[in-house]
Design goal:
The chain is α/β, with parallel strands linked by helices and 369 residues long. It is 30% helix and 29% strand. The chain contains 8 helices and 20 strands. The strands form 4 sheets. It has a 6-stranded parallel beta sheet with strand order 2-1-3-4-5-8, with helices on both faces. The protein has a 6-stranded antiparallel beta sheet with strand order 10-11-12-19-14-17, with no helix packed on it. Helix 1 crosses helix 6. The radius of gyration is 29 Å and the shape is elongated. The mean pLDDT is 96.
């Protein structure tokens, strides 16, 4: 399958061409630099995704040349090839507005619909709104890209109206839709304007605050919530704008003493916190119990003895765990417990606690096992 992609070097084009490659398809990229190859690429293509367009020219006349006229040239090339070439067109929700960009996109839509009517060539016109995702150019025409880039680079952002709402669509959802359409066995086209699903109705202020919380998560260790699809996609987008120079990694605050160290890795809203405990050989930590807080221990290096005794009883339970045989040990409420490094090297234990540590209500009572 060979797919002609106009605007292949743009934000959507780069993502789509990569996804096409992963799907075992060959991209035939067309950009300004090789626009002379359009007719040849049309003849070689099995499908066309028309992404090329102009949205911020110096001269408004460029809108019509880069949107309407380029689409006309594509249609004429398909006609001349005498082939039935399905075409997906990336239009814009601004095609419904009375501005030069919108009018030029509407003209391109009308050209394609007329072509479909005249030649029975399948056409799919999608109106995109506020596409976000990795590789989008910041400080250009995407508020998400601008906010992500500026916040990640410690630059100011401007929010004129925090309550203003927009519909947002994610780059991978566009790619999924297009690839599924390409794989369709029989292409009939559509006489209606199509839209990418899902779309997300969000306020500008909400997005700004959410992206700022992503940056803050490195210092407060609050893991961004991944249960909401939009939040997950926005967080993935934000991470793609981190500066490459030593900014992918960030330090943690370790509590170090002669026994080893204890370091919080991340905290969550409602799902507890995760920490890393390092103990020197022969060191015992713990000897306390909790009323409500519960924990899970996973020894990933060295050998440790984890011991339990129900408060008020004398029976002691022991589990010997090592990094060579990974097992998770639950720490129930009402059991005083300890962990001792019985090996000859530093031990490393991943510790999960069901709630965030609150120094005003630690729920941690000392008692020897």
């Amino acid at each position: 399958m060979k797919v002609l992609v106009t605007g292949a070097s743009g934000f959507i084009g780069k993502n789509l061409c990569l996804r096409l490659k992963e799907a075992g398809m060959e991209s035939l990229p067309i950009d300004k630099e090789n626009i002379a190859d359009l007719e040849k690429s049309v003849k070689a293509a099995d499908f066309c995704v028309h992404l090329a367009g102009i949205n911020r020219p110096l001269d408004p006349k460029e809108f019509y040349d880069g949107n309407a006229n380029l689409t006309y040239r594509l249609v004429e090339a398909v006609k001349a090839s005498n082939k039935r070439l399905p075409i997906v067109f990336a239009s814009s929700t601004q095609a419904a507005l009375d501005n030069d960009y919108g009018k030029s996109k509407k003209m391109a839509e009308d050209e394609l619909f007329a072509f479909q009517q005249e030649c029975s060539n399948p056409v799919y016109v999608y109106r995109f709104s506020n596409v976000f995702g990795k590789w989008c150019r910041p400080n250009y025409n995407s508020v998400v890209a601008t906010f992500c880039y500026n916040i990640a680079h410690d630059l100011p952002i401007k929010v004129s109206d925090p309550s203003a709402r927009r519909d947002f669509i994610y780059i991978d959802d566009i790619c999924d839709t297009v690839i599924d359409l390409i794989k369709t066995k029989e292409h009939k086209g559509s006489n209606e304007i199509l839209y990418i699903k899902p779309s997300y109705d969000k306020s500008i202020g909400e997005i700004a605050n959410l992206i700022q919380s992503f940056k803050d998560s490195r210092s407060n260790l609050m893991l961004p919530y991944q249960g909401d699809e939009f939040d997950k996609k926005l967080y993935a987008t934000y991470l793609s704008y981190l500066p490459e120079d030593n900014c992918f990694a960030y330090p943690l605050n370790s509590h170090v003493d002669h026994r080893g160290s204890f370091t919080e890795f991340y905290r969550t809203d409602g799902y507890g916190q995760l920490s890393v405990n390092v103990s020197k050989p022969g060191i015992t930590k713990g000897n306390h119990y909790h009323h409500t807080k519960n924990e899970k221990f996973l020894v990933v290096k060295g050998t440790c003895s984890i011991r339990f005794r129900k408060v008020g009883d004398t029976k002691v339970c022991e589990y010997v765990c090592s990094g060579d045989n990974l097992v998770v040990v639950d720490v129930p409420c009402g059991y005083t417990h300890s962990i001792t490094n019985i090996g000859t090297e530093d031990s490393v234990t991943i510790m999960w606690a069901s709630e965030l540590f609150d120094p005003n209500n630690p729920d941690t009572i000392y008692e020897e096992v």
